[in-house]
Amino acid sequence: MILAIETSCDDTCAAVVEPSGRRALSNVVHTQTEHERYGGVVPEVASRAHLERLDGVVERALTEASVTLDDVTRVAVTTRPGLIGALLVGVAGAKGIAYSRRLPLVPVDHLEGHVAAAYLTEPHLEPPFVALIASGGHTALYSVRPDGRMRLLGETLDDAAGEALDKGARMLGLGFPGGPAISKAAADGDPTRYEFPVGLKERDNLDFSFSGLKTSLLYRLKALDEERVRAEIPHLAAGYEAAVVEALVRKLLRAADIHETLAVVVAGGVAANARLRRRLEMECGSRGLKLIIPPSALCTDNAAMIGAAAARSSAVTYPDYLSLNARSV
Ligand code: KG4
Ligand code: ZN
């Protein structure tokens, strides 16, 4: 079994994954609530919370999978990218467990982890395919080659899609994290009442930009008095969410066209968005493109995806990983 650990941001995660990387026996996520009062993740608070929680989360992952450390044959951990202090807690914890049991350790890239969630979702999926990762920290398109290597096709030039939703939600007074908050507020809204710009819409490349969207919301809000804003929140949220979704859908389809792929994978926290899922199901359906979007629990940060990626990566043998370090980028 693979014991996987993920602590790159504000979720303390551990999971037990089968050696094939196709099935998770447990997937425990402790979401830190300490950040809510700040309206964003505070790195130092995240590191301390990981330190307090990691042991308990690992124990729960083993118990829920009905295994013990004796059943673990390799330990996997996210080593990059992310908040450096947060990553270090997971890396030190994973090294400690692996070293004490003389096990190999697999360092995993967080973004490769997000893509690997697709292997847990679709048992027969194999590359090549095109993958869109949209999270709070990243928004990028990759071509995943037959050997599993990921080639960057395009990425955001400013904010990540999740970051744009988080910032928009904050401007609308909707709370944190912003993605689910905006979706909830937008449920009864008319997305066409307020039109927001879709970043780099006409550009013939595969990059994203969400900063214009944020500015546009700011000006919209300035033009309305407080009472109107309150009444218009569902429509503003719906228009804003639609603009983020539209940018993601357009660029993913363009990438699929250019790379003549038969399958597309969408992952990362924003892939939990219901509107995005609906739009993609429709567009991919009409193009005969196979669409793989993991269930929400595998889209937002979790350790099962790290275990799935580890099944496809080479391990560092005992005890060579002691010098292994975390990296923020
Ligand atoms: O992948 P993730 O859990 O953490 C990072 O690696 O960043 O993504 C978190 C992001 C946040 O910006 C959050 O607002 C967004 O994903 N998110 C959503 C939804 N659930 C989480 N965005 C839109 N709709 C959702 N349902
Ligand atoms: Zn993530």
Structural class: alpha/beta
CATH class of the largest domain equals: Alpha Beta
Bound molecules: 5'-O-[(R)-(carboxyoxy)(hydroxy)phosphoryl]adenosine, zinc ion
- As laid out across the biggest beta sheet, the strand order is 3-2-1-4-5
How many beta strands in the DSSP annotation?
10
Compute the average pLDDT: 95
Radius of gyration: 20 Å
DSSP helix fraction? 40-55%
Describe, in plain words, how this protein is organized in 3D.
The protein has 329 residues and is α/β, with parallel strands linked by helices. α2 links the parallel β4 and β5 (105-109). It folds into two domains: 2-114 and 300-323, ATPase, nucleotide binding domain (Nucleotidyltransferase, domain 5); 129-260, Nucleotidyltransferase, domain 5, CATH 3.30.420. The mean pLDDT is 95. It contains ten helices and ten strands. The longest helix has 33 residues, at 226-258. Helix content is 43%, strand content 18%. Strands 3-2-1-4-5 form a five-stranded mixed β-sheet, sandwiched between helices. A five-stranded mixed β-sheet has the order 8-7-6-9-10, sandwiched between helices. The relative contact order is 0.19. The site of 5'-O-[(R)-(carboxyoxy)(hydroxy)phosphoryl]adenosine has 19 residues, from α4 and α5.
SSE layout:
Blueprint: E1 2-6, E2 11-17, E3 24-31, H1 43-64, E4 74-80, H2 84-101, E5 105-109, H3 110-121, E6 129-134, E7 139-144, E8 150-155, H4 161-171, H5 178-186, H6 211-223, H7 226-258, E9 263-267, H8 274-287, E10 290-292, H9 296-299, H10 304-310
Parallel strand pairs: 1-4, 4-5, 6-9, 9-10
Antiparallel strand pairs: 1-2, 2-3, 6-7, 7-8
Helix pairs in contact: 1-2, 3-10, 4-5, 4-6, 4-7, 5-7, 7-8
The structure holds 5'-O-[(R)-(carboxyoxy)(hydroxy)phosphoryl]adenosine and zinc ion (ZN).
